[in-house]
Amino acid sequence: MTFQILVVCTANVCRSPLAAALLTEELGGPTHRLAISGAGVGAMVGAPACREMRRTAAGQGLPVAGLHHHRSRQLTVGELAAADLVLAADRQVRSTILRMAPDVAPRVFTLREAAALAEVADAGLSAHGTGSDRGVGAERRLRDRVAAMHASRGLTEMPRTRRLLALPATLRPLAVHDHDVPDAHQCDLAPHRVVFRLTADAAHRLGCVLSATASTPAAAR
């Protein structure tokens, strides 16, 4: 069995390919236990990854082979049903996903929301681990982690909109909700470097928890 992570944005050319590439790096590349893919809720099928994001990622030292070879795909209900963890770029994309497939709600989070909840769930499971998951496969542990993340909704600090000094101080700051990665192609105030920074931070935080979960039972940590 394979634990399937599906990353979703609007066009599947910028935010979701970046997040998939970053998570692949964090989780040590594709393995028999993990499969990471992406799609868009309004994708033009076959489009390459955003040139500006490829340039930004390269400037930050991220291996961009996956981004160079990326071609966009349109999200399907079947993919949502098969995914063990669905990561939306923002709340609007998450809402679109839930309208398509309401039953997958316990497995759908925005990327930044998932990072916060993963840390809360990790702390709770580590504190209350009893050893009952010894001998349980990595895929089962990862699915249990997602269930714990869902159960932790509402236990983190209330999300709010924060103002980021994304542009020179003479221009208007960018207002970003704690659960969103803004779309650089829809918001002139959201430069690709800010999209990269927010995505990289969330992918690192989430990746750390998932990597530890996949490799070592909680009770042994």
Could you walk me through the main structural features you see in this protein, from its secondary elements to its overall organization?
The protein has 221 residues and is of the alpha/beta class. It has helices spanning 15-26, 51-59, 65-69, 77-82, 91-100, 111-128, 138-151, 192-215, and strands at residues 3-9, 34-40, 85-88, 108-110, 161-164, 174-177. It has one domain (3-220): Rossmann fold (3-Layer(aba) Sandwich), CATH 3.40.50.2300. 44% of the residues lie in helices and 13% in strands. Helix 1 (15-26) runs parallel beside helix 8. The model has no long low-confidence stretch (mean pLDDT 87).
Per-chain topology:
Elements: E1 3-9, H1 15-26, E2 34-40, H2 51-59, H3 65-69, H4 77-82, E3 85-88, H5 91-100, E4 108-110, H6 111-128, H7 138-151, E5 161-164, E6 174-177, H8 192-215
Parallel strand pairs: 1-2, 1-3, 3-4
Antiparallel strand pairs: 5-6
